[in-house]
Amino acid sequence: MDMKTHHLLFILIALPLFCSCRSSRSMLREIQALKSSLYYELTSPIYQEKADQTVYLDFIDYSNMDYYTSVKRKKSAYIPLLLYNYEGELFHLRLGESSLTQLYREFLTEALLTECNSSTCCHLIDNQKGKMIPDSAYRLEIKIRKNETCGRIKLNQSSIPWFEGEMLEVVNNKIRPAASSLAISIRLTQKEDCLLDKTYSTEYQQTTKAQRFEDSPSANAACLDDMTECLSMATKEIVEEISRDIHLILSLQPKSRH
Fold first, then answer.
1. Is residue 83 part of a domain?
2. In this structure, is residue 10 part of a structural domain?
């Protein structure tokens, strides 16, 4: 095997590795420059009557999620042929709080206020400033135990020789449905009595089909939006359970106002 053949083989081996590393870094830069919004849609009936009980929600001090969204390449394939070249890469993404338009703990606070205050059983008040409350008042403490949301992007690019020596490139990028693992603990107390101490958890996965995109920036943005939607839905699932349990507990308590 002569020197030219050695050089050609080296280029064929090194080129896909170089492209993959560059793609991973560029994806990370693109993702970290994007922002996406969490949302909470109230689907429970709203009652206009005054609430029977008042509950004070303590400040939620920790979102328990990474600050930056991370991108890791899990698989890569490069197939150079005479009439057909294929390059494919699979990336795993983990949602970070810096990619959100608001802190997750703030979103959770708003979600709890929205859901709990739709009922006449209790009036939930945000006491994040730690103001003095009546001794006999109900107090709600929240701790976020686990908060992980992941997504996947698969980049596929094929090139085929075309007319006059040009190459025809076919891009087929896909995002896979995101998944959230969320656990939230609550503690409802009155004076020294603990009325409810429970941890709620969910493993929520999006049910949307894989979507296709012509370029990686569009796939990155769509994957980020899919992850935030997934986390929003996981939060809604838990918040609705929390609200139901609080209302059940308070409905069994003597009626009073604080």
1. yes
2. yes
Share of the chain above pLDDT 90, in %: 49
CA-to-CA distance for 226 and 37, rounded, in angstroms? 10
Dihedral sign from CA coordinates of 212, 224, 154, 156: positive
The number of distinct structural domains making up the chain is: 1
For residue range 119-159, what is the model confidence (pLDDT) as tens digits? 767 889 999 877 888 888 899 999 999 999 999 998 876 55
Pairing between β-strand 193-205 and β-strand 173-190 as defined by DSSP bridges: antiparallel
Q: How far apart are the first and last CA of the chain?
A: 89
Please check whether residue 257 lies inside any domain of the structure: no
Q: d(Cα 63, Cα 27) in Å, to the nearest integer?
A: 25
Quickly state the pLDDT bin for 169 (edges 50, 70, 90). low
Give me the amino acid identity at 13: I
CA angle 27, 78, 20 (to 5 degrees): 25
Give how far Cα 187 sits from Cα of 51, 118, 174, 184, 230, Å: 20, 20, 42, 10, 26
- What is the span of the domain harbouring residue 221? 3-251
CA 181 to chain centre: 9
Using a 10 angstrom Cβ sphere, with 0-12 exposed, 13-18 middle and 19 or more buried, the burial of residue 60 is buried
Burial class (CB in 10 A: 0-12, 13-18, 19+), 120: middle
| 258 domain-assigned | no
- Residue 250 CA to residue 53 CA, distance in Å, equals 7
